[in-house]
Amino acid sequence: MACFIVSAAEAVVVSAVEKAEEKKESARVESGNEASEKVSIPFSRKLKWLRSLLSGGAVLLMFEHVWHGEVVPWFPFLTAMSDPADAAEMFHEMATVGVSMAVLVTFVWALMCKAADVVVKRAAQDDAKVNEA
Amino acid sequence: MTLLITVFAAIIFSVKWYNRQNDDMKLGSLCLMLWGASLMWLVDAIFEYAELKSEYFTPAAEDMLNDAFLGLSVVALALVIWLVRLLIADPKGTVRLALNKKDAA
Q1: Could you report the predicted ipTM of this complex, rounded to two decimals?
Q2: Cβ contact (<8 Å) for A67 and B43?
Q3: How far out from the chain centre does Cα A15 lie?
Q4: Which residues of A touch B81 (CB under 8 A)?
Q5: Contact call for residues B78 and A60 (beta carbons, < 8 A)
Q6: pTM (two decimals)
Q7: The domain containing residue B37 runs over which residues?
Q8: A74-116 tens-digit pLDDT
């Protein structure tokens, strides 16, 4: 009914954190505190992946809800909001399906970040070995 | 059906992203969009399966057709969003070049 709203809300929060992290990272680079030897993916870039997963998924899911007539272009935009019983069902679905969606996407993103870090570290180690040889 | 079509599209574009020569086509954002939607529909499918049990795997032909149309429309929408973002970002400068040419003429 409106499960995509949970992911969309998380995407907004992630977007704000990403911007703050980008500022912090550029400030660190400008002040010279960033270790030049350190090989890793910036956290802001990882947050961008999460934002893309959440916002992209939410947009496509919203389209599905428009297709099924659950989202309309006029106020209150969600057809379930016009009836209290439907609204209660919608909030229940947001709390179960919507939260599960956001949790699964975030969990997969965490795995993705871990895998990406391993790949980058392995590549750096391989480069170091080649340079030593 | 919607889930299946989206997952296949995500796999195809992920393979394309892996075999890319450079990042000019910005396929990464398209892949993430499709994978995000696939994961969300997977959760939807799990909840639906918990409710319908084995009936979930024997949908009516009309529902399947509607879901297939929806899946294809979702992939088309994702491609349109990706294309618009690509044209706005214009990493190869093709749009800028075309517009400048028009101005000169």
Answers
A1: 0.89
A2: no
A3: 8
A4: 56, 59
A5: yes
A6: 0.89
A7: 2-104
A8: 888 888 888 888 899 999 999 999 999 999 999 999 999 999 9
